[in-house]
Structures are given as structure tokens and as C-alpha cells.
């Protein structure tokens, strides 16, 4: 009797449909002998898998009752469940058969032989076909993209993570992947919450900054211009007060970079950066001007996210260079003519990505603590500097490299993990002047003396000066950008759509399917223009609520559509006024 009756059919389906997991399985060595000898029926009469110890996975953990708490009825139809570890499919099958067809089940199984054993026990083709069951490649980049594509499940449903207890008996990789996924889901949840509530502000700022950004220049020419440059990213963590005096004695010949908010601290400590960056979009950034000395920064270039508050940009006394970032109007419109960077959620991440784009030879981190140290949140001079030792509800605890307990926050740890993920993609050495905060994986810990004697605080002769000259040449060098206003066409299309829907809503019972099809076409129309799409993020998400989170339309849904359409057309007209500029106001060559 074939112990794996469905393996051939499932594998052939995955191959025929070009599923990435088939390629992964094809390149992964697996122990064929295991598949022949490890499957058995245990004393309960159930299929089981014999572990290296000789015991079965389910001898002490029978599946009956083990997966009852995996079901969450609330918003189940618009939710998703990640599962780490498949065993022979008991938990997966419980989810697949007890959740709505629209509930997504996402399986991560790091062991190829276990995935094959699972695929051999159940015919999963119907679940693959209706896009309910998804097999995930154990690769961080692949998984990050999967998580980012679940925005509607985050907004209209819930995301659950289940670490399979029987599978965890097989090895530590199951716990590691579960922890990684939990962190990634937490990061994205925070990012999406920011997008959902702040996208209008961020892209609204970008539209207001558009004309100036076009005149200010382009950073695209900086690709590869950092050859031979050693770079330093100076953070405003409490340890900067300890590190800065030591650096000041041995400045070396490197490119010093920092956030705009860090400059008042650096001035107090006697260090002047070669460039600074700003990405925060809200008005709290204006607090920096309460402490910023205009004379000190009048020759320090500011690399600014085009999403920052326009007043922050207007008040900066030095040279300015725009950085177009993913999620804004430049995402698609400018991707071929300019640098469009994923800025991340922290300016150190932004600087790391920009310096990697520039091709610097090595990177040194300083003041990157991501924690309170000795009761301090930031170095002195920073506008958020506090010495309040009280532990608040939003604090978390972690440990420093000496094993001592220190305070941090979800936001700090999210930023640290994002920086670590970015550092993994760097092909140059990274060092950290560790000052007692949270350790940063991927960065070798050094002190200032070591950094100086080993050439970490050095660059190739003339490399820094050449880099700064190239940066200065980036100003005022963009060609004209001409875009035609399209609000008249949008207005006409939406008026026609509203008239059509109004007729359909007069007989709701008979027109449910036609209403859904019409709303789906409108949703696609809203997404089709790369210039308007980023500013319409919330309207597109709201429309998705009508097309993908509704099972029966009611009279009030027509009013919701009209609200969305009105908001959308207001934004389209605003873009036409501020972005589709007359030739006299557009960028000049």
C-alpha cells in the first residue's frame, strides 16, 4: 500500500502552476530513507512520524484537542493564519476544513522531508486552486513580501500565528522561524497602522513639496560614488555622549552622517557632520529648530524625504536634496529617472540604504542604542532628550551585551530589527561603537581606538572630498517632468459609475452580483494610475472593504461608495494643481 497516496498529485500540481515551493523542494536535499521508514501507525491507530529518539511525534501529544484553539471565528472570512510546522497535516487540515474558503492558511515548513510527508497524506489541490492554502519558502525576503501583501487581512480581519507544538520536537529551527515571523508581523502591523492613519499626511506633504523637490535636484547620480569612502552613521542614543569625545580626538578621514534631529547634540559635543537626513513626516520635527544653530548647518547638505512637513524644509538654512521614497508619488512615476528608496521607519535605516546605494567601502555605527541607558532616552541636545527613569506601560525590557536588563520600546526594537535586516544585505564590513544598548546583529563591536588603528576611521585618499563634490553636483540637475492633468477624465468616469450604481441599488436583491462586479471594476480603475495611486491609498483600501470584505450589499453601501468617490476626486484635483504644473513651474534642465 502506498504510504503517500497524494504526494505525486500535489507535487505535479505545484510544478504545473510554477509554485515557488516546487523550486525550493527541487534544490533541497532530503533523506529519502526517512520517507520510507519514519511513517508508522502509533498505538492510537493514527499516522505518526518517528523522531530521531525513536518516539513518535504524537505519542505524548495526540492531535485530538491539540488544535482546538487554532480556530478564531471573529472575522474568520477576512483573516489569515500562519502556521510554522506541518507535521503530517493534522493542524493544517483542521484549519482548512473549519475556516471559510476566504480564510488564508499560510504554511512555513523548514524541513523538506516533513513537507513531502504532509503533502503525501492529503489532496490539497482544491485548497491550492481556490487560493486558500499557501506554501511558503523558508526565505526571509520571500516571507517579507508575503507579509506585505496581506494588508487587507490586517485591516479587515486578523492575522494569527501558530507554532506547531509537535513539530517543535524535531529541532530548534521551528521556534526560530516562529519568532522571526512574529517579529515581522509586528513590524508590518506597526508600519501598516502608520500608513493607514498617516498616508494622507505623508503623501500630502510630498505633493506640497513636489515643485521644490523637482527644482532641488536628483540623487540618482550618486550610485556607486562612494567607492573608497568609509562612512559613519551617528545616532542620538545616550551613548553618543560617551563616544563623541573619543571620536573627536580621532576623527579620522571618513564621511560623518546623521539625522537632522541629531545635529544639536553633535554641536554640543563638537562634531560637525558632512550630511544629514530627515524622513519624519509630522510637525514634531519642527522642534529641532528650537535647538538648531542655523550658522552651524548652513553648509551641511540635508537629504530629505519628500514626505517631510514642508515647513521643516523651508526653515532649513543649508543646501537641500530630495529623496523620493517608496509609497509616495515617486514610487512608479519617478523610478526610472530618479532614486526611489524604501526609507524604512528609522533614519539610520534610511542612511544605511542610501550609503549602500552609494557603494561606500565600510560603515561604522555610533550612538545606535535603541534603549534607555542610565535613565536617558537620547543624548543631550536632542529635542526628545529625557532623564525620566520611570518605567511606563509602553516600555519593554531586554538585555545588553553584559546580560543586564535595560528598557526599550516596540518602536525601538522594530527599528533595530529593520536595521539588522538591512545590514544583512550589505556587501561591505559593518562595525558598531557599542555603548551599552541593545546589541545589533551583523555589526562587529569595536572601540574607538580599534576603529582608528584598523583603518575603520579612514577612507581612500580624496574619496570623501570627491563624494561631497558629486553630492553637490546632484543639485538642480533634473530634466523637465511634464504630466498632463487627468481630473476631468476621472470626474466624468466616476459620475457615470455613480449613476450606474444608483440604478443597481434600487433592486438590491436582484443585483448583488452586478453591484460587486461594478465595484471591482471601479477599484481597478482607482489603482490604474501610478501618479494618483499613492495618494488614494486610503480610498483604495476603503473600496477593497466594499469588494472583498462584504458578503451582501445594503442600501448604506451606496452612500459609502459616494463618500469614497468624493474624497478620491478631491485628491485627484489637488494633485493636478500641485504636481501637474505649468511648464514655467516645472523642473528645468
List the helices and strands and how they pair.
Layout: H1 7-16, H2 20-27, H3 32-37, E1 39-41, E2 47-49, E3 80-84, H4 90-98, E4 104-108, H5 112-119, H6 125-129, E5 133-136, H7 140-148, H8 151-156, E6 159-163, H9 165-168, H10 173-216, E7 230-234, H11 240-249, E8 255-259, H12 263-269, E9 275-278, H13 294-297, E10 302-305, H14 310-315, E11 320-325, H15 330-333, E12 340-341, H16 347-358, E13 362-366, E14 395-399, E15 405-409, H17 410-424, E16 430-433, E17 444-446, H18 448-453, H19 463-473, H20 487-504, H21 512-527, H22 537-548, H23 556-578
Parallel strand pairs: 3-4, 3-6, 4-5, 7-8, 7-13, 8-9, 9-10, 10-11, 11-12, 13-16, 16-17
Antiparallel strand pairs: 1-2, 14-15
Helix pairs in contact: 7-10, 10-17, 16-17, 20-21, 20-23, 21-22, 22-23
Pfam family, one: MptE-like
Protein name: Motility associated factor glycosyltransferase family protein
Domain 6-hydroxymethylpterin diphosphokinase MptE-like: 207-374
Produce a short descriptive summary.
By secondary structure, this protein is of the alpha/beta class.
Structure description:
This protein has helices spanning 7-16, 20-27, 32-37, 90-98, 112-119, 125-129, 140-148, 151-156, 165-168, 173-216, 240-249, 263-269, 294-297, 310-315, 330-333, 347-358, 410-424, 448-453, 463-473, 487-504, 512-527, 537-548, 556-578; strands spanning 39-41, 47-49, 80-84, 104-108, 133-136, 159-163, 230-234, 255-259, 275-278, 302-305, 320-325, 340-341, 362-366, 395-399, 405-409, 430-433, 444-446. With 589 residues, the chain is an alpha/beta fold. Strands 12-11-10-9-8-7-13-16-17 form a nine-stranded parallel beta sheet, with helices on both faces. Strand 1 and strand 2 (47-49) form a beta hairpin. Helix 20 (487-504) runs antiparallel to helix 23, helix 21 packs antiparallel against helix 22 (537-548) and helix 22 (537-548) packs antiparallel against helix 23 (556-578). The longest helix has 44 residues, at 173-216. The protein is globular, with a radius of gyration of 28 Å. It starts with 6 loop residues before the first helix and ends in an 11-residue tail after the last helix. The model has no long low-confidence stretch (mean pLDDT 90). Pfam families: MptE-like. Residues 207-374 form the 6-hydroxymethylpterin diphosphokinase MptE-like domain. This is Motility associated factor glycosyltransferase family protein.
